[in-house]
Design a protein that fits this description.
The structure holds two protein chains of two kinds. Chain A is α+β, with helices and mostly antiparallel strands. Chain A is built from eight helices and 19 strands. In chain B, a hairpin with a 2-residue loop joins strand 3 and strand 4. The chains are: A alpha+beta, B alpha/beta. Chain B: Probable oxidoreductase that may play a role as regulator of mitochondrial function.
C-alpha cells in the first residue's frame, strides 16, 4: 500500500499510511493539503473547500472513509454483546439495515458514536471515528460465541454524497440503486468479479442524498475509475475534511473533538458528556432492561442535563467560532459556548452548535463574536435564536427513488 | 409458589451468620450449600476412613460480637480460654516459642522488644477493630453515615497520639522484612512473627502492601492474634453456627449446587429474583445473597451480559489465585518433632525470612519451592474424634503453592510436591514417614474444585490495598449491595475479608436489614 520506494526508511513506522484510493486522490489533491486521520494521510481539501462543499450540495462528491474504523462482530452472541454495549435497541435492527448508535461508559459518559450495519442475523459491521478495539474486547468479555475482526485496513470505503449521487451510481450500473431507502444496504456485482462484491448503503455524514460504498481493497482503484467515469458529467469531485465539517454542521451532526470529548480519553472530571447533554436522548432506549451505563443515565436523565447542545441561528454574517454565550447583551452572565460555527451558504444563515446551560435555554442568548477584517480585530455581540430542526434537511435526502438528472 | 425473603448461596461461616441475622429479624431464609457439609473451608470432612479434618485448622480472629449477638455459647460453642503456642521449628530442636505474649528461645533484647512490639500492635489493632464490623463508605458518596465512618477513622487515628499515629502511618504498608529487621535479631523469630501477615496472600516478606494490615486484622479476635481452638475443634464452631441458624428458622439445604442466579429484566431494569439449581429446580426470592466469591458470583452465576462493562472487567481482574496448599496426614501415632514434647501448638517451618521469600520467588513464576515453608497442627490432640483411638491427624498449610502450576497439576507434579513435603517434615520429625497411613494433598486448584472457590483463594480475593476496605471486592459492590437490585454479597470477598471471622456475613445482614427499612 505504501508507495515509498526507499527500502531503508528510518522513519518507516512513523509515516502516514496511504488509503486504498490514494493513487487517485493524490493526483487530484492540487493543493497538497494533507493532514491525517487514524494514521492515514488524509485530505483537508483537494482544490478548494468551498468548491467541494458546493459539489456536495449541488452535484456530487466523494469522501474517503478508508481511515474510518470498521469492525465485524459475528457469531451467535454478536447481537447480545452489541445490544448491551450501545444505548439503542439493536434487537429491532433488521438484516441489511443500518442504525446510528452511541455507547457509554458505566458512568453514562459518551465514548463514541457510530453506525451498526446488520449484514446477516449474526454478523454486524460497526463503524466509528476512533479506534475502539480495546473497548469492544472489554465489552465482549463474558460472551463466548463471538468474533471481533478489525476490518479498518481491509475494507475500502468511499462516501458519495450529493443530489446527483444516485444518478451516477445508476450510470455506473448499480441496477435498482434508486430503490434503496435511507439506512438500507444492497449488494451489487462489479467489473465481472464473482458474486456481488460491491456493497452500497444509503448513509452518510452530510444530511443530503448520499451513499457509502464498500469494496475489497484489490477492487478499490477499478471501482474509483468506474465511479469517476460515470460521474464525469455529474460534477463528481473528491472532498476533504473541511467540506465534510461544513456539511455535517448544516445537518446538525456532532463531531468528536468539537461537540464531545470521548469519555475514554477524558482526563478532567466530567469534561466528557452524557447523550442527554448532546441532545441524543432519542438514542437512549430505557425500555431496554439493560445496557451499559443505564443506571447512571437514568439518574442523569432524572437530574436533567446541566448543559444542552443546541442549534443556533445567529444574527449577522460573522461566524461565531469559539464564542462565549451570554444571557444578556452586556455579556455579564456567561451561559455557554459555541462548539462549531459557520456561515451556511445553502441555508443563507449564520449557524452554530453550542453547549448552553439548560437552565438558561428559556432566556435570551447572546454571542460575543470576535472577527477580523483586513488584519483589524473587531468584536460584536449578536442575538441568537434556538433552532429545533436541523439547519439543512432537504426532501431529496429521504426521497425514494431520488430525482433523476 | 414460595418466595423466600432471602436465598443465601453458600453454607460457609459467613453464609450461616448472614442467614441467622436475617432469620432473627423474622425474614424467611433459605440457605443453599453445594457440598454435603456446612462450613466451607471449615467443613470437617473424612479424608480417609476414620480420619477427619478441616482445611481451616485454628481460629485467630473470629468475631466476639458475632458470638455474643448470635448467642453461640447457648448453641454449644466452647471457645478456649487458652491459646496455642506458636513454635518456630529449628532442625536442632532449639525452637523459638511465642506463648501468652512472651517469647522464648531468643536473646533478652528480642524478648524485651517483643513486649513493646506486641503492645504497639495491640494499640493499632484496637484502633482498627471497630471498622472490621462496619460497612465502608461508598466512594464519591457524601452521605452522613459515610462521612461519620471516615470521621471516626480519622478520630481513632488521632487518638492514638502523635507518636503512635505517625508510626502507624509509617509502617502500615511496610514490607514485613523491614518491620522485622528494625525490631528483632533472631531470624526464626522474624519469620514466625511475619507468618500471619503473609499466609493466604500472594505476598512475601519483601512485598510492600498490606502485610501489617493483615496482621492487625487477625489481631481483632479474642486473643489479640494468638491462635486457639474451641473444645471439639473447628467443627464445634460450625455446629454452633448451624444450630443458631436452625433455631432462628433458617431452612438449610445441602447438596444444592446453584447453577445460576435468575436475573429478570423489565423496563425498570434488571433484578435478581431467585436461583436455578444444578438439577434445574427454580427457587425464587426477594433477595439473593451470595457468599460465593465475587468472580464466581458475578461471572459464573450472574453472567457478564447482565453487568456493566467496566464493572465486569474489574471483577475479572480481581487477583484471586490462591498460594496455599493443604496437607492432611492420617498417622499411626503421635509424630515426634525434635525438641517438642507434645506437638499441640502451631508449628511453623520457616527458618528465616529468606526461606519464605525464596519459596515465594518460585511460586511467582509458576513453580513451587523445593524447600517449602509450612504451618503444622495436630488437630486430633484437641479433638480425639478426628482419628481412631491412638491414631492422629496432621494438618499443614503449605506456602507458596501456585494455583496455576507451570505445566499443570499432573499426578506427577502432585506426587513430587507431596514427597518434598514429607521429606521436609521428616527432617523435623524423624520417623514421621513411617507413621503415615494415608496422605492427602490439596493444591489451590483442588480447593477451587472441591469448595467452588475461584483460584482456591482462602480469602476469595487477595487481601491487598487495592482490594480492601471500600475497594473490596471493587467499588460499586463494596457495600454488600451490588449493581443488580436484589443481589447482595456476604462472603470473604467483601469487607473485611477472609479467615474464620464472620465480618462479611454480619455486615451484609446489617446492610440488608437497614435497606429494608
Amino acid at each position: 500500500m505504501n508507495s515509498n520506494p526507499e527500502v531503508n526508511d528510518p522513519f518507516a513506522g512513523e509515516r502516514l499510511k496511504e488509503s486504498h484510493f490514494h493513487p487517485r486522490q493524490a493526483l487530484l489533491n492540487l493543493r497538497d493539503a494533507w493532514s491525517s486521520w487514524n494514521g492515514y494521510k488524509f485530505a483537508d481539501y483537494y482544490y478548494d473547500e468551498e468548491y467541494e462543499y458546493f459539489c456536495v450540495r449541488n452535484s456530487c462528491a466523494t469522501y474517503d472513509i478508508c481511515p474510518m474504523q470498521k469492525y465485524i462482530v459475528s457469531g451467535p452472541d454478536a447481537e447480545a454483546m452489541l445490544d448491551r454495549m450501545v444505548t439503542r435497541d439493536l434487537t429491532k435492527l433488521k438484516e441489511n439495515r443500518v442504525t446510528y448508535v452511541c455507547w457509554c461508559t458505566d458512568e453514562g459518559r459518551l465514548i463514541d458514536d457510530g453506525t451498526i450495519f446488520r449484514l446477516e442475523a449474526d454478523r454486524f459491521l460497526l463503524t466509528c471515528g476512533s479506534p475502539s478495539l480495546a473497548w469492544l474486547r472489554k465489552s465482549a468479555f463474558g460472551f463466548d460465541e463471538l468474533q471481533i475482526t478489525d476490518m479498518s485496513d481491509t475494507i475500502a470505503a468511499l462516501s458519495l454524497q450529493g443530489p446527483t449521487s444516485c444518478e451516477v451510481l445508476k450510470k455506473m450500473g448499480l441496477v435498482g440503486i434508486e430503490n434503496l431507502k435511507p439506512f438500507c444496504i444492497a449488494h451489487f456485482p462489479f467489473a465481472g468479479s464473482e458474486g456481488t462484491p460491491l456493497m452500497a448503503s444509503r448513509t452518510g455524514f452530510t444530511g443530503d442524498l448520499g451513499y457509502e460504498l464498500w469494496i475489497s481493497p484489490d477492487l478499490a482503484l477499478a471501482f474509483w475509475d468506474a465511479l469517476y467515469a460515470a460521474g464525469e458529467n455529474y460534477g463528481i469531485q473528491p472532498y476533504g475534511e473541511a467540506a465534510t465539517n461544513m456539511a455535517r454542521l448544516e445537518a446538525g451532526f456532532i463531531m468528536p473533538g468539537m461537540e464531545f470529548n470521548e469519555a475514554l480519553k477524558t482526563i478532567h472530571f466530567q469534561y466528557d458528556q452524557t447523550p442527554f447533554e448532546l441532545s441524543l436522548d432519542w438514542l437512549v432506549d430505557f425500555k431496554k432492561p439493560h445496557f451499559n451505563g443505564r443506571k447512571a443515565l437514568l439518574k442523569a436523565r432524572d437530574q436533567g442535563a446541566e448543559y444542552t447542545l443546541i442549534k443556533l441561528d445567529i444574527e449577522g454574517n460573522k461566524p461565531a467560532e469559539e464564542s462565549f454565550l451570554y444571557s444578556d447583551q452586556d455579556c455579564s452572565k456567561e451561559i455557554g459556548y459555541v462548539t462549531s460555527a459557520m456561515w451556511s451558504p445553502v441555508v443563507k444563515a449564520n449557524i452554530a452548535l453550542a453547549m448552553v446551560e439548560t437552565a438558561a435555554l428559556k432566556g435570551s442568548i447572546w454571542a460575543e463574536i470576535y472577527y477580523s477584517k483586513e488584519l483589524r480585530h473587531h468584536s460584536k455581540v449578536a442575538k441568537c435564536t434556538i433552532q429545533e430542526k436541523p439547519f439543512w434537511a432537504p426532501e431529496r435526502a429521504r426521497a425514494t427513488p431520488p430525482a433523476a438528472f | 409458589m414460595q418466595v423466600y425473603d432471602n436465598i443465601i448461596i453458600g453454607g460457609g461461616h459467613n453464609g450461616l451468620i448472614c442467614a441467622t441475622y436475617l432469620a432473627q429479624k423474622g425474614q424467611s431464609v433459605l440457605l443453599l450449600e453445594a457440598t454435603d457439609g456446612l462450613g466451607g473451608l471449615a467443613t470437617t470432612r473424612e479424608f480417609h476412613p476414620g480420619y477427619r479434618v478441616s482445611v481451616a485448622h485454628s481460629l485467630s480472629h473470629f468475631s466476639e460480637s458475632v458470638v455474643k449477638q448470635l448467642n453461640l455459647l447457648d448453641h454449644g460453642y466452647k471457645p478456649s480460654s487458652d491459646t496455642l503456642d506458636t513454635i518456630g521449628l529449628n532442625l536442632d530442636g532449639e525452637h523459638v516459642v511465642v506463648s501468652g505474649g512472651q517469647v522464648s528461645g531468643v536473646d533478652s533484647a528480642d524478648q524485651k522488644t517483643y513486649t513493646d512490639y506486641l503492645s504497639l500492635l495491640k494499640r493499632f489493632a484496637k484502633m482498627l477493630k471497630p471498622f472490621w464490623l462496619k460497612t465502608m463508605p461508598r466512594i464519591g458518596d457524601n452521605s452522613l453515615p459515610d462521612l461519620i465512618t471516615f470521621g471516626q477513622l480519622g478520630l481513632k487515628l488521632r487518638l492514638l497520639g502523635k507518636k503512635d499515629m505517625g508510626e502507624f502511618m509509617r509502617v502500615a504498608t511496610l514490607p514485613a522484612r523491614d518491620l522485622m529487621d528494625e525490631n528483632f535479631n533472631n531470624d526464626l523469630l522474624k519469620a514466625i512473627l511475619s507468618w500471619d501477615g503473609l499466609i493466604g496472600s500472594k505476598m512475601a516478606p519483601r512485598s510492600p502492601n498490606a502485610t501489617l494490615l493483615n496482621m492487625l486484622y487477625r489481631m481483632s479476635g479474642q486473643h489479640h492474634g494468638a491462635h486457639s481452638l474451641p473444645e471439639g475443634g473447628i467443627a464445634n464452631l460450625i455446629n454452633a453456627l448451624h444450630s443458631a441458624a436452625l433455631d432462628a428458622g433458617v431452612t438449610v439445604q445441602t447438596g444444592a449446587l446453584v447453577k445460576r442466579i435468575i436475573i429478570e429484566g423489565s423496563s425498570s431494569g434488571l433484578a435478581a429474583t431467585g436461583v436455578e439449581l444444578a438439577d434445574g429446580a427454580l427457587i425464587y426470592g426477594t433477595r439473593v445473597v451470595s457468599s460465593a466469591d465475587p468472580k464466581q458470583t458475578f461471572l459464573n452465576l450472574v453472567g457478564a451480559k447482565n453487568l456493566e462493562i467496566g464493572f465486569t472487567n474489574r471483577i475479572n481482574r480481581l487477583r484471586c489465585d490462591g498460594y496455599v496448599a493443604k496437607l492432611h496426614l492420617a498417622l499411626d501415632g503421635l509424630p515426634q518433632f525434635t525438641g517438642v514434647d507434645i506437638p499441640n501448638g502451631r508449628m511453623i517451618i520457616a527458618p528465616k525470612l529468606d526461606a519464605i521469600e525464596f519459596a515465594f520467588d518460585d511460586a511467582k513464576y509458576g513453580g513451587y519451592s523445593q524447600s517449602p515453608v509450612m504451618e503444622i497442627m495436630i488437630p486430633s490432640l484437641r479433638d480425639q474424634s478426628l482419628a481412631p483411638n491412638g491414631k492422629q491427624v496432621l494438618s499443614a498449610h503449605v506456602m507458596y503453592v501456585p494455583h496455576k502450576l507451570k505445566g499443570g497439576w499432573t499426578d506427577e507434579a502432585r506426587q513430587h510436591l507431596y514427597q518434598r513435603l514429607i521429606d521436609t517434615l521428616e527432617s523435623y520429625a524423624p520417623g514421621i514417614e513411617q507413621q503415615i497411613i494415608h496422605g492427602e494433598l490439596l493444591t489451590p486448584a483442588d480447593l477451587e474444585k472441591t469448595y467452588h472457590l475461584s483460584g482456591g483463594h482462602w480469602h476469595h480475593a487477595e487481601l491487598s490495598m487495592d482490594q480492601m476496605l471500600m475497594m473490596r471486592p471493587t467499588y460499586e459492590a463494596a457495600q454488600y449491595s451490588t449493581p443488580i437490585p436484589g443481589l447482595y454479597l456476604c462472603g470473604a470477598g467483601s469487607h473485611p475479608g477472609g479467615g474464620l471471622m464472620g465480618g462479611p456475613g454480619h455486615n451484609a445482614a446489617k446492610e440488608i436489614i437497614g435497606a429494608k427499612k
